[in-house]
């Protein structure tokens, strides 16, 4: 097997997936916006296209050299031959970034029936895939161990499809067992980017932690693949001029909540939405659209314009490098120029297909028109708002924004965790993107606080 794979090196050079427009726009604000994370996202999306046998979509991500060396039919042949030798593809396990010889690369560990192989995806300076090799996996054993507070005997999991038709999404429902009454339930709403149901970010799975932790305490949890991950191919090259966060996130969360109300074992009057990052920012809009929700939980939700946070985060990351270079300052100036264009958008620009910060004007206009704080003030449902003190992506300034707007309103609970980062995992010192490369779990105190708050709502 390895001989054939090594001999195919000249055939296995590939180029990266272009980021989905709205993903790139918001990832800088809410996702792990380091270059390595963006490349990991591109590499894993590419592997997912191979798994779906969308070779047309995969080849569309090649540069001119790769399109000639590895056209669609040849790529199909390589992928099918690989599975004949390594066995059928079972699942994608993990991904890690590295650099060598001036190139960035991502190792995506793929579990085949007969072996674990790393898809080594090499990127050039333009963040295009400049090489692809399948090599024996050098990754450590699966680091995604259950959190210590998860009790496997307290719940069961089953497949759950959110929505129907072309945008249906595979998900997982964690359902408590042994209860004498229907359980409350929570819909988990992702941050930005093409997230999977676990909201996997490098070595961590915060949504899986939340699901298993809350289910262990008698609360059902639904998590699902985000639309921009499950249906990535439909977005690439599509006309996104009408795209807003409603289509990206809100519609699917509403479908999930409605479906839970009709699910056996769930109390239809105790359905909650928990949004993290971008999901937390738009959670008030979800609650506005569904007044029957029992409450919303906001984890690291922003209260300031996303484009402003993009600038703040960029400058923060540059401080981690020391003195910014001339090239760094040029990139900041380019970002500031794009942000200025976003600020100047008017309703007349809504139908434009031109991209600003990788998103269509309508996306930015929609965020401006539907201010989260204004929406939150209209809600009758109780709110739980949590913030990590070491979060550099959504900071205490945003947390203060929630408190200023809602502090005098009954039914709102605020909690700041000084030692936690954007993923609500503990650490020390200044938080950095590299922190997410080490496996950890959502702090047990967060699980307990959320569970106690939900269980107190009758």
Structure description:
The protein is α/β, with parallel strands linked by helices and 458 residues long. It folds into two domains: 2-136, Nuclear Transport Factor 2, Chain: A (Roll), CATH 3.10.450; 152-307 and 337-455, Rossmann fold, CATH 3.40.50. Helices cover 39% and strands 21% of the residues. It has 17 helices and twelve strands. The strands form two sheets. An eight-stranded mixed sheet has the order 5-6-8-7-9-10-11-12, with helices on both faces. Strands 1-2-3-4 form a four-stranded antiparallel sheet. Helix 2 (21-30) packs across helix 12 and helix 10 packs across helix 11. It is globular and about 65 Å long.
Give a quick summary of the entry.
With 458 residues, this protein is of the alpha/beta class.
Give descriptors for this structure.
458 residues; alpha/beta; Nuclear Transport Factor 2, Chain: A; Rossmann fold; 8-stranded mixed β-sheet; 12 strands; 39% helix; disordered N terminus
Write the layout of secondary structure elements.
Elements: H1 2-7, H2 21-30, H3 35-51, H4 55-59, H5 64-69, H6 72-86, E1 89-100, E2 103-112, E3 116-123, E4 129-136, E5 155-162, E6 169-176, E7 183-189, H7 206-215, E8 220-224, H8 227-230, H9 232-235, H10 245-261, E9 266-276, H11 278-289, E10 295-299, H12 306-320, H13 326-343, H14 361-369, H15 372-377, E11 383-388, H16 396-406, E12 412-417, H17 444-455
Parallel strand pairs: 7-8, 7-9, 9-10, 10-11, 11-12
Antiparallel strand pairs: 1-2, 2-3, 3-4, 5-6, 6-8
Helix pairs in contact: 2-12, 10-11, 12-13
């Amino acid at each position: 097997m390895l001989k054939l794979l090594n001999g195919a090196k000249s055939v296995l050079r590939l180029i990266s997936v272009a980021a989905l427009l709205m993903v790139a726009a918001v990832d800088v604000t809410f996702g792990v916006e380091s270059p390595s994370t963006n490349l990991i996202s591109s590499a894993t999306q590419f592997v997912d296209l191979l798994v779906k046998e969308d070779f047309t979509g995969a080849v569309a991500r090649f540069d001119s050299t790769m399109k000639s060396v590895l056209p669609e039919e040849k790529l199909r042949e390589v992928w099918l031959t690989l599975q004949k030798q390594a066995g059928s593809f079972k699942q994608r396990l993990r991904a890690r970034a590295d650099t060598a010889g001036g190139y960035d690369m991502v190792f995506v560990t793929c579990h085949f029936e007969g072996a674990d192989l790393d898809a080594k995806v090499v990127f050039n300076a333009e963040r295009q895939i400049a090489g692809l090799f399948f090599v024996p996996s050098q990754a450590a054993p699966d680091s995604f161990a259950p959190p210590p507070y998860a009790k496997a005997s307290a719940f069961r999991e089953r497949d759950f499809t959110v929505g129907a038709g072309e945008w249906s999404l595979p998900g997982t429902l964690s359902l408590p067992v042994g209860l004498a009454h229907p359980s409350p339930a929570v819909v988990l709403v992702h941050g930005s980017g093409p997230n999977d149901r676990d909201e996997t970010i490098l070595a961590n799975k915060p949504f899986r932690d939340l699901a298993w932790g809350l289910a262990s305490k008698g609360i059902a949890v639904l998590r699902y693949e985000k639309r921009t991950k499950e249906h990535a191919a439909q977005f690439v090259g599509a006309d996104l001029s009408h795209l807003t966060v409603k289509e990206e996130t809100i519609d699917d969360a509403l479908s999930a909540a409605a479906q839970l109300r009709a699910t056996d074992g769930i109390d239809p009057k105790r359905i909650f939405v928990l949004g993290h990052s971008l999901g937390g920012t738009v959670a008030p809009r979800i609650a506005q659209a569904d007044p029957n929700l029992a409450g919303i939980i906001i984890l690291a939700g922003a209260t300031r314009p996303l484009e402003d946070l993009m600038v703040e985060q960029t400058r923060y990351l540059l401080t981690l490098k020391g003195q910014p270079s001339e090239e760094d300052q040029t990139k900041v100036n380019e970002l500031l120029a794009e942000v200025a264009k976003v600020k100047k958008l008017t309703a007349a620009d809504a139908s434009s297909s031109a991209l600003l910060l990788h998103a269509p004007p309508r996306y930015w206009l929609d965020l401006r028109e539907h201010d989260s704080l204004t929406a939150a003030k209209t809600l009758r449902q109780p709110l739980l708002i949590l913030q990590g003190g070491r979060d550099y992506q959504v900071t205490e300034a945003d947390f203060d924004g929630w408190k200023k707007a809602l502090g005098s309103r009954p039914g709102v609970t605020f909690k700041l965790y000084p030692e936690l980062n954007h993923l609500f995992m503990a650490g020390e010192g200044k938080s950095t993107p590299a922190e997410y490369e080490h496996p950890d779990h959502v702090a047990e105190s967060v699980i307990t606080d959320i569970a106690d708050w939900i269980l107190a709502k009758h």
